[in-house]
Specification:
Shape: globular
Number of helices: 5
CATH class: Alpha Beta
Bound molecules: pyroglutamic acid
Structural class: alpha/beta
């Protein structure tokens, strides 16, 4: 059977950090996982722009699924996100200097969308490979949520499914290899 195409994205560094482990992990993944052929894309940490680039790429390559990955530095588990919400509220400016405060992403659009990839199954699969994981009900109000919400909004009622996974900062407990293993397990859990 022809593999389906999965667009997988990571982010550039932001907030003064020299690297973003989301892209380091995505970059290190093999090109084929489970029934998917992976197409990798590095995104800028910019409201609107990140989502526009990911959406355009997903359409150009006819992706059947989009899995976005970002850093949530304070977390102590790999956390698939259950929901994207229709708000932008920046604690720090994005990499283009934008710092929206409490603005909708899409005026007159629904308040929230649930992720359309199987996030619960991803949590189970990640745990099964020995990496701490938990389902998250908030992707925050910064660029990661902006990306997740916008993709779910634009792909609503289409065949293209989407989800987001926040990874913790690299540490002794979460070396890059563990983040990669977690992402592979998550992708294998997509049915
Ligand atoms: N994390 C940020 C944006 C880019 C990233 O890797 C976030 O959680 O919104």
């Amino acid at each position: 059977m022809e593999p389906e195409t999965l667009l997988i994205t990571g982010f550039m560094p932001f907030g003064g950090d020299p690297v973003n482990p989301s892209w380091e992990a995505v970059k290190a993944l093999p090109d084929r996982i489970g029934g998917f052929s992976l197409h990798k894309l590095l995104l800028p940490v910019e409201f609107g722009c990140a989502a526009d680039l990911a959406y355009a790429e997903a359409q150009a390559i006819r992706a059947s699924a989009v899995l976005c990955v970002g850093l949530a530095a304070g977390r102590t588990a790999v956390t698939p996100e259950a929901i994207g919400i229709n708000i932008r509220d920046a604690r720090i400016p994005d990499n283009a200097g934008a710092a929206p405060k409490g603005e909708p992403i899409e005026p007159d659009a629904p308040a929230a969308y649930f992720s359309t990839l199987p996030v619960r199954g991803m949590v189970e699969a990640i745990r099964s490979c020995g990496v701490p994981s938990a389902l998250s009900y908030t992707a925050g109000t910064y660029v990661c949520n902006d990306l997740l919400y916008t993709l779910l909004h634009r792909f609503a009622n289409t065949g293209t499914r989407a989800a987001f996974i926040h990874v913790p900062a690299i540490s002794e407990q979460f070396p890059l290899t563990a983040l990669c293993r977690a992402l592979e397990a998550a992708i294998e859990a997509i049915r």
